[in-house]
Amino acid sequence: MAFFAFSYVWFKIANEVYRPLTIVFFRLATSVIVLTLYLYLTNRFQKIKKEDRIYFFLIALFEPFLYFIFESHGLTYVSSTVASVLIATIPIFTAIGALVFFREKLNLLNYTGVIISFAGILIFILAGKSNLSFDSKGIILMLCAVLCATGYSLILRKLANTYRPVYIVNVQNIIGLSLFLPVFLISEGRHVPDMIFDPKAVIAVAQLAIFASCGAFILFGYTVKIIGVTRANLFANIIPVLTAVFAYYTIGEVITIEKFAGIIIMISGLYMAQVRFSYRKKVKRSINSQV
After folding, report:
1. What is the pLDDT of residue 245?
2. How many CB atoms lie within 10 A of CB 135?
3. Rounded to two decimals, what is the model's pTM?
């Protein structure tokens, strides 16, 4: 999540020189080169089962392809505050999807934690802000982005039990790069000859590729495999908090009392959502130890 939080800073730096689709394309291309080279040197390529091919295509279709398209267009119709609130609903949709498709159940304390964490992130996002401008088209586009992120997480949950997260992310990025290629050529192709080499922007794109497109997604894949998709997705609520902390130390952005309260509530809910220890198990373990 720290890598994801930093990605907003790196994207902003790169965007000062390069267009958004250009950044995404070269970010994916760099990540494919890095991961393919790693898998080749370590001999960790895996054979994709025939029945899983559709899932690999869908995981790349949902994210990064459709998610980026819906989010980028949705942001033109809604304020960043409204967008942040809608994105914060991803863990809730994921919890519902995991329950329906995988019977991934949480206890009552965990579900309460999901709601409390969402409330905390709402307080954090809305603290001191009144910019809630939006129209229905923007809301629909952002909700489509939320559904794409949810679909990605649920399919990752299925694939992570069979394939290594490193391999999943590599295939995901290869397919995503293929999907973006025609879009990139049509919309940005004419601007390629005019591109300039800017060391600062190029380093930012490399950081996006290595730490966000590779590192963050790989670590997220391992997390989903270990603690489940619902608990893993809930950590996404930390992203705006980390971004605010980074901004505080780098540009001196003020963290208000309201934001600090939102952070405490969000972290409390996050902790509650991760607890797996029940009173019944505690009593049973105590009895067994006495016996």
Report:
1. 78
2. 9
3. 0.84
